[in-house]
Amino acid sequence: MGTRSHHEPQSRRFPRHSAIPSRSAVPAAVSERLGSYRDRMRSSTETLWSSQDRHHGDRRRLFAAVATHIEASRVLYPGSFVDVAASFVFPAVTYIDSDHRAATFFDDVEGVGEIVSACQTSVGKRTLEFIAGDYREDLGLADESYDLLVSLYAGFVSEHCTRYLRVGGQLLVNPSHGDAAMASIDDRYRLGAVVKSGGTRGYRIDDQQLDSYFVPKKPQPVTVERLHKLGRGIGYTNSPFADLFERVK
After folding, report:
1. Which residues contact 68 (CB under 8 A, 6 or more apart)?
2. Angle between helical axes of 100-107 and 109-119 (0-180°, round to 10)
3. What are the pLDDT digits (tens) for 156-168?
4. Which parts of the chain fold into alpha helices (H)?
5. What is the DSSP letter of 14?
6. What is the largest CA-CA distance in the chain?
7. Which tens digit of pLDDT belongs to each residue from 68-105?
8. Whole-number Å distance between alpha carbons of 81 and 228
9. Which residues, including other chains, have CB under 8 Å from residue 127's CB and lie 6 or more apart?
10. What CA–CA distance (Å, rounded) separates 106 from 48?
């Protein structure tokens, strides 16, 4: 893949992968399928994915829940590290990370493709792209070309990457690192729903009583400058696992 450059991010485009039928007993099916190609997968790929998926299927359940509430064909996932679970659910995902281990992981095109093929939740082809770089820099992507922007434990993604999200698109963001708070004061966004954890499916979407969210536990200013200084979220009286904001302008 070459050496990462902050000024000229290195992009690796993946081929489309064959679809497999959705299945209810995913763990058993995945285990059987993974066993058939482990000898072809790089050991580092298997190690990184096993660590990422240590709470087996958790991220797949998260993205599957989100997909029941929104329609998204093109997804942008800055700060993804090796979390390819978005591709289990959505047809086209662009991953961005500056960690050299992520670059090594995605360079194993066959291994990563097999993980996705084994775990995807519905019939259909998948397209993956990885950009080795810092999402705070110009990524060379077209503005307003994505339907869903993902911000999970990766800093202020919305500040730097909203330009790539189309108006009417969705931001999936959790409160870690303060990006949910940042989106809540960004007039380009409107809170449309929250993602709650728990239940038989792991996650559920709730779009009721949204005015009960983003109420600080203690009176305090919520500003861009303060969030940058804190480098994390602030305490709210009602905190779901994540939030879904719609870009409105």
Report:
1. 205
2. 80
3. 999 999 999 999 9
4. 26-37, 43-52, 58-67, 86-89, 100-107, 109-119, 157-161, 179-184, 224-230
5. P
6. 57
7. 999 999 999 999 999 999 999 999 999 999 999 999 99
8. 22
9. 14, 16, 91, 92, 93
10. 11
